[in-house]
Amino acid sequence: MQEQKILIIDYGSQYTQLIARRIRENKTYCEVVTPAYLNNLKDSENIIGVVLSGGPNSTINDNKHDLNDHLFELDVPVLGICFGMQLICKKFGGVLEQSSSREYGKAKLDIHSKGKIFDGLSDSLEVWMSHGDSVTEVSDNFKIIASTNNKSLSAIKVNNKEIYGIQFHPEVTHTLDDGKIISNFVNKICNSRSQWTTKNIIIKQISKIKNKVGGDNVILGLSGGVDSSVSAAILHKAISNQLTCIFVDNGLLRLNERDQVKESFKDFEKIKIHYVDASKLFMKRLEGITEPEEKRKIIGKTFVDVFQDEAKKIENVKWLAQGTIYPDVIESAASSENAHLIKSHHNVGGLPKEMNLDLIEPLRELFKDEVRKLGIELGIKSTLINRHPFPGPGLAVRILGEVKKEYADILREADNIFIKMLHEYNMYNKISQAFTVFMPIKSVGVTGDGRSYGNVLSLRAVKTIDFMTAKPFDFPFDFLEEVSTKIINEVPGISRVCLDISSKPPATIEWE
Ligand code: XMP
Questions:
Q1: Is the shortest distance between the CB of 348 and ligand 1 below 6 Å?
Q2: Residue 395 falls within a domain, yes or no?
Q3: Distance between CA atoms of residues 65 and 9, nearest Å
Q4: pLDDT at position 133, please?
């Protein structure tokens, strides 16, 4: 049986990935595609519905995205959200107007006709709006099923067809429908069989990996992060000892990282992990380098050199596994040719083409929350799965200026104290990313009877959904005082602890 899927046509909304996540939460597979995708579609039998996303463009003076008949030839339910609704109305002879002011923020929706899409909701609903153009008239073949207090048309349905348009954003949590609108579309209108479950994803991926790899060997760079760990776990389950993981210690990792990786994989029978201590080489190449981008480049290049040397020792390798996940695919596929918000890609290096290996990316279709669920199901400890993200260049972007082993050692100790205390006080899981930053400046302190000069360290902890914007975490003062005292008492070389309270933007999460 072919896997059912819903297509999301991306017109550049900042919320497109959210729509996808909401559909997946309804145990239904979906893909984000470009508007041109439908033109080349050959096989349509497994598509059970199409969502047209919002977007920053206007349908009024621009015909670029006008809907063509390919979409309706599929004969599946369609849900147009915001810009998507305007496209549907335009296609079927509606009238659109450019408003003098945007309708932005909360609005009260009056539902006139519930049908399947508003099933289970009360007659009035708080929704989230964000649009400039409005639909002011629709042709006879439409039914107006909801409007807002300013009388604008907020939801329509094409008569006798499962084609819907809604002007607000059901995918954001500010629309207080408890997820019902998207769930109704997926389950009651598209009639999903709800087969996108963690167990099914694992079965499907294992069979895909086996078919692809056959009897060849695969190598994977294991970093201790979630994505590479879950990739290793699923590959190990699929091809067992045909997989070799390479763990490179670059001297810029957190305290006891290697032991943690060992511990996390100890129940994976006979998993092959090569541990390479290349910290001296990394430190040597970083000597005297202070410019952040140069540091990143050197680390990326050195990683490739070390990885390549190690890979040469393994026979019959044809495949390189990578922990690419779905948001990376969407962002780099320029499916967001219109997107106004683009996350910069930080990945260290990338491996060179000369290695002549084919890529295998077992998590390519998955969002981060799905990757985490997969990891737990495959038996990886939750302490690893729920760890905060850690940048590829590691502590190098948390030591301002030149990187030295002595600084990295200090930072590792201090960071460990901070993170341990966050766990003790049950704060770790409320924070998206927390760490310490080392400043190579000296400040005076008093130890015993004498004066001392030590370095300055900053605590950084942020809350964020997408890492593109972030807010500082609001700590109780007592906690901060306790961390500061503990770090200064226990980590030689630190005389002062500060707290970074900047938001992103204008600051970034890392300090370099
Ligand atoms: P910024 O500092 O850009 O960080 O606000 C956003 C997220 O990206 C991570 N980050 C990196 N990750 N290589 C990585 O793999 C890098 O060079 C890099 N720089 C920042 C950062 O930790 C945060 O999660």
A1: yes
A2: no
A3: 11
A4: 84
